Amino acid sequence: MSRKNLHAFFLLLILLGAACKNSPQQQTTNNAAGSFVDVAYGTPVVDGSGADAIWENQNWQPINHNWRGSAPKATDFQGRYKIAWDENNLYLLIEIEDDTLTESAIAAPEVPRLADCLILFVDEDASSGERANYNAFAYHIPLDGRVFDATPDSIWQTFDDHCWVRRISRDNTSTWEIALRVYDGKQYRPGGENIPKLLKEGKKMGFALAYGDRDSSPQWENVIGNIPLNGQKPETPWQNANNYLILNLLR
Question: I need a surface site. Which of 40, 172, 202, 225 has the fewest CB within 10 A?
């Protein structure tokens, strides 16, 4: 290679490196439990369309780790998601391909495992530990968009004011867009005047995401998550926040 061509080659490498460094795309270490995810700043319109510019600049992250039941076929389930944030909310764009959308067949919608359901796990300060007493929330969102979590005494309660949810379904594909308020679970009081946290650059939060898929069985046949359980029991993400992803908020 001539000196002139060699100089051009190294100049191209430098430019490519600068482009990668300045890219606003979401960076994930390896999407494994406990890994860090850089989350970009932006405020989408939460309407279920996913058409905002902030989403165009984000990489899709897979929902592909089987937590419960046998691993579903690609024709039965596929899932992926993106995350963004601003001072008031954490934002999620979630795309689910499910060949059968199932709502609860009994008059007990507060039991989310009886229907197809998104589950969002949020550990506000990434402190990990047991999930009891709101150290971390586990928001269960069935197809009707209502939001449930179990109280410390194992009673299902609505948390509709914690999440603004919109879903658009076309054929087998559902696009969910969610604005999630973040609460300090250590200060949270059921029925009290709880104030959401204001988010800022550099904040770390624990996060995991799953989908409970019910087709023809009385309850979920599969639960598919965004992190591996690494041999732990299926109920582990509900019990503690030790292996959630760590979100790193960037501007």
Answer: 202
